[in-house]
Every structure is written in C-alpha cells, then in structure tokens.
Amino acid sequence: MYDTITFAAFHPNEIFQTKCFGCLMERYSVTEDGILMYHQERLESVPEEQRPYYGTPEFDKGWSVVGCVKSVPIGDFIVSHHGDVSFIGDSGEYTARFSHGKLERIWQNLKEN
Fold first, then answer.
1. 58 contacts: CB under 8 Å, gap ≥ 6
2. Concatenated DSSP letters for 56-71?
3. Residue 113 within any structural domain of the chain
C-alpha cells in the first residue's frame, strides 16, 4: 500500500504516490507556502441501498462491496516532517526535501542506464 501526496505549486493537478509515511492509504498535501499537511479521515459504512450497484443483477454477484465504505474528513494537521520524501506519478519520480514540515526543494530522480 501507499499514501498519496499533492503539491499546490508543483504539478497541481497530479496525485502522487509515496511509501515514505505510514503506507495506510492516507492523504497528504503541500500548500502554496510549502507546508506539509496531513488530511485525517475515518471510514464509514455506506448502507446497501446507497451503493452504486444496488438493485442490479451485479449486486448479488459480488459487486455489493463496491462503494461499501466512504471517507469522512476529520481534520487537517501540519506535519513537522524533517527529511526526504520520494514520490511517483504520471510525470515521473521525484524527491522532496522538508525541513521541519517546510518544503525546501524538489528534484526529479533520473534513472541511470
């Protein structure tokens, strides 16, 4: 598993994956000011009648689990991470360096042949 991280000022429409935090499918972001944020959520069960395949033949063929839980935001917290965070997305592989939760720089990881 992995966590996701987004950057407001660096490929702002891309969601990156990272294994540098807890790898619990949690969400992180970096603000325009370079502050690392953690977006805490809890999972909540979705009633069957509100799931996408409810009332269709697929629902009884195993598709009942689709949409069975949803994320409910709890709050956003500043993360005082100190060190490097590697992440990957459609645009490539990168490393971000943080100093006590503040982004210092980002560089692309170039593969050697």
1. none
2. SGGGGGTGGGTT-EEE
3. no
Count of residues in the chain: 113
Q: Are 109 and 93 in contact (CB under 8 A)?
A: yes
Domain that holds residue 10: 3-44+71-108
Q: What is the mean pLDDT of residues 76-93?
A: 96
State the alpha helices, DSSP H only, in the chain.
none
Q: Which tokens go with 53?
A: 């395949």
CA distance 64 to 57: 10
Supply the pTM of this predicted model: 0.82
Query: Looking at the 3D structure of the chain, how many domains does it have?
Result: 1
In a domain, 19, yes or no: yes
Residue carrying structure tokens 């697929």? 58
